Amino acid sequence: MEKIKMTTPLVEMDGDEMTRILWQMIKDELILPYVDLKTEYYDLGLEHRNETDDQVTVDSANATLKYGVAVKCATITPNAARMTEYNLKEMWKSPNGTIRAILDGTVFRAPILIKGIVPYVNKWSKPITIARHAYGDVYKNTEIKVPGPGKAELVFTGEDGTQIRETIHNFTGAGILQGIHNTEKSISSFARSCFNYAIDTKQDLWFATKDTISKKYDHTFKDIFQEIYDQEYAEKFKELGIEYFYTLIDDAVARVIRSEGGFIWACKNYDGDVMSDMVATAYGDLSMMTSVLVSPNGVYEYEAAHGTVQRHYYKHLKGEETSTNGIATIFAWTGALKKRGEMDNIPELTVFGEKLERACVKTVEDGKMTKSLASISTCERPVVLNSLDFIKAIRETLDSLL
Ligand code: NAP
Ligand code: MG
């Protein structure tokens, strides 16, 4: 087979630990033999981030704005322990946070469904994609521990000095206070990313907040979504036969459990944080969750939802065998290749991405899998493979499909 040619490079963001090992295996076994791969390579491994004072992360995000599609390996977000482990100059910020701030997007997470890995909610036969707003609310809050009696007020001072003032509470004893915010700009980007993603994947979009209680804050989210939908997306949705549906968050939770899946659930920041962990676990396994950051101007960054699988990496360093599941990282690659194929009008590239995805699913359905999948699979006698042999088994399946 002749290798598939690419015209525009992918932005390749390499990462850390076990996923860095998987990254190379995936490229060597599943991509390079089939695709004449064009990438602009950025090493986001912690050592190189430290050497470049984290400039490499900023550069990789800017390259993504330029080329439109990136594929990212999981990376370490440094904490105190990593400061000593890697002898860091600074406790560098989360690369995902830095990239998100530059691309200004929404994160979409969807499970990969496989026969034999049965969701805990047995009606879920299609994936539920969570779209999490990634700015503001409780994640950028200001808090006060109220020491004793007194009056708490909410004050906004405009640039011209005019004030808006509301009483929050007259405390008769000790208590707590929290100030949160969001911006019209960020909520609008969130809305557009969700509508674009629904159109891209031809799925219904659900959105829910607590607007009955939060008549200004949450209601603004609802209004912005509705306005943008009516003005910019309603026609296209009708054309595709998909639906935008708003309801109260309590009602949404009940409907999600009764549903068959197959839609996008847009969540405010906190709801998305909590609900994505619930949904991922309910579908069976964290290592089967894909993640893509979609910016409002149509830039895409694909990655696995899991981290660098540190414990497996330490085993690997000791020369012990690991059984780490590379599927979510493979899907990051296929997502990026398919999108590149679509944008550059290279259907062979898109078809290749689809076949590689099918090869992953089929390999597991044929009974070959890594340890964590075997532990939850209904397959009678699963063959448990190590990290590399699993990728090689996927390659065999892929060859049979090509
Ligand atoms: P993790 O890497 O997601 O791993 C947590 C545990 O989940 C693993 O120890 C393993 O369980 C299981 N697991 C996750 N992915 C797996 C896979 N592909 N195959 C098999 N098992 C898998 O989270 P963490 O250990 O808490 O974090 C490690 C590092 O990743 C941290 O430095 C964190 O900053 C970083 N992180 C990065 C991202 C990102 O770049 N997007 C996201 C999250 C965390 P067992 O050990 O029981 O087998
Ligand atoms: Mg969480």
How would you describe this protein?
The chain has 402 residues and is α/β, with parallel strands linked by helices. The chain has three domains: 213 residues, Isopropylmalate Dehydrogenase; 126 residues, 3-Layer(aba) Sandwich (Isopropylmalate Dehydrogenase); 38 residues, no CATH class. The protein contains 14 helices and 18 strands. The protein has a ten-stranded mixed β-sheet, with helices on both faces. It starts with a strand and ends with a helix. The mean pLDDT is 95. The protein binds NADP nicotinamide-adenine-dinucleotide phosphate and magnesium ion. The site of magnesium ion (MG) has 2 residues, from helix 9. The site of magnesium ion has 2 residues, from helix 9.
Would you tell me which CATH topology of the largest domain applies? Isopropylmalate Dehydrogenase
Ions, cofactors and other ligands present here are: NADP nicotinamide-adenine-dinucleotide phosphate, magnesium ion
* Count of beta strands: 18
Q: What would CATH call the class of the largest domain?
A: Alpha Beta
Question: Which strand order spans the largest sheet, edge to edge or round the barrel?
Answer: 4-2-5-16-15-6-7-14-12-13
Shape: globular
Task: State the distance separating the first and last CA atoms.
Answer: 9 Å
Major β-sheet profile: 10 strands, mixed
Strand content: 15-25%
What is the CATH-assigned architecture of the largest domain?
3-Layer(aba) Sandwich
Rounded mean pLDDT score: 95
Q: What is the name of the CATH superfamily of the largest domain?
A: Isopropylmalate Dehydrogenase
Rounded to an integer in angstroms, the radius of gyration calculated over CA atoms is 23 Å
Structural class by secondary-structure content = alpha/beta
